[in-house]
């Protein structure tokens, strides 16, 4: 059940633990690959599994660096050399062997464990350049990336590995990809969710259909009945918003009639927040 009083921001310690578990799962999956499997296609067009692993390592190192320098009051760009440096790093990393990838992932895990502040530390509030945020934002970005790319690796880790907190976070973070807010209806949930450029919120009061006349949120003029309703399981809707293939494609309706799923725009930029 969705708690209408809960904040949309996930718990920091829960995120840290799950990101650690996700990296462990990726490392185990990588150890099980042979050379042909490593060179084989991932779920991302044009990328081998080796490219995905190189990106996982690169984004992890980038977020660790954000945290490490923030602890000393320093700011640094997300990727050394910007977008060009990011691409060069992925291409270089994609030439690693299985053993080299495992070594890089093991080293990354140790670096991240050392980089994150302690529980309850004020260091979580230190500013970083990633989306003009804080160290908390860097941690959440790493969690999001490692969980998504674990599935992209196409090496036995599926959408069922995404925790509920990640699904809700993705609806919130990726809503900016939609041109207009939609109502998301999840199985067994009494209340729809309003998802879109304005963020994630309840579309109606608990126990009231999103098609009622009692929508809530900062915009009292929002009418859930006038827009698109997307129905599906949380992980499937999150996967659709992330541009990945859901296990079961969500359904979309307008005024009760089936319509195509809304178009989604670009991924949010790592360099500045969209909202």
Please characterize this protein's 3D structure:
The chain is of the alpha+beta class and 275 residues long. It is built from 8 helices and 6 strands; from the N terminus they run H-H-H-H-H-H-H-E-E-E-E-H-E-E. Strand 2 and strand 3 (199-202) form a beta hairpin. The protein starts with 11 loop residues before the first helix and ends in a 16-residue tail after the last strand. Mean pLDDT is 89; it is low at 205-221.
Give the arrangement of secondary structure elements:
Blueprint: H1 12-31, H2 35-39, H3 49-70, H4 82-93, H5 98-115, H6 135-152, H7 164-174, E1 182-185, E2 193-196, E3 199-202, E4 228-231, H8 234-241, E5 251-254, E6 257-259
Parallel strand pairs: 1-4
Antiparallel strand pairs: 1-2, 2-3, 4-5, 5-6
Helix content class: 40-55%
> Residue-averaged pLDDT, rounded?
89
Largest sheet: 6 strands, mixed
Rg, Å, rounded: 19 Å
Could you tell me how far the N terminus lies from the C terminus, measured between alpha carbons in angstroms? 27 Å
**Helix/strand class:** alpha+beta
User: What is the spatial order of strands in the main beta sheet?
Assistant: 3-2-1-4-5-6
Listing every helix as H and every strand as E from the N terminus to the C terminus, the arrangement reads: HHHHHHHEEEEHEE
Q: What percent of residues are in strands?
A: 5-15%
Q: What's the tally of helices?
A: 8
| Shape annotation | globular
Instruction: Tell me how many strands there are.
Output: 6
Give the low-confidence spans: 205-221
């Amino acid at each position: 059940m969705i708690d209408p009083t809960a904040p949309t921001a996930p718990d920091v310690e829960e995120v840290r633990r799950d990101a650690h578990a996700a990296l462990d799962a990726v490392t185990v999956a990588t150890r099980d690959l042979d050379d042909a499997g490593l060179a084989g296609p991932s779920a991302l067009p044009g990328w081998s599994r080796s490219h995905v692993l190189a990106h996982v390592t690169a984004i992890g190192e980038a977020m660790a660096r954000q945290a490490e320098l923030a602890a000393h009051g320093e700011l640094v760009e997300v990727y050394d050399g910007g977008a060009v440096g990011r691409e060069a790093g992925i291409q270089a990393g994609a030439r690693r062997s299985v053993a080299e990838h495992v070594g890089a992932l093991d080293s990354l895990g140790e670096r991240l464990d050392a980089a994150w502040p302690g529980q309850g530390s004020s260091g979580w509030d230190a500013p970083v350049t990633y989306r003009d945020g804080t160290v908390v934002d860097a941690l959440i970005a790493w969690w999001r990336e490692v969980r998504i790319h674990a599935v992209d690796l196409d090496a036995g880790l599926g959408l069922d590995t995404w925790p509920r907190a990640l699904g809700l976070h993705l609806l919130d973070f990726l809503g900016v990809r939609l041109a207009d807010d939609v109502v998301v209806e999840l199985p067994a949930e009494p209340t729809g969710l309003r998802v879109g450029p304005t963020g994630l919120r309840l579309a109606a009061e608990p126990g009231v259909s999103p098609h009622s006349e009692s929508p809530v949120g900062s915009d009292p003029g929002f009418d859930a009945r006038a827009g698109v309703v997307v129905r599906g399981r949380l992980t499937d809707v999150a996967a659709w918003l992330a541009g990945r293939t859901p296990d079961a494609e969500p359904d979309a309706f307008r005024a009760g009639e089936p319509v195509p799923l809304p178009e989604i725009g670009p991924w949010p930029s790592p360099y500045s927040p969209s909202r």
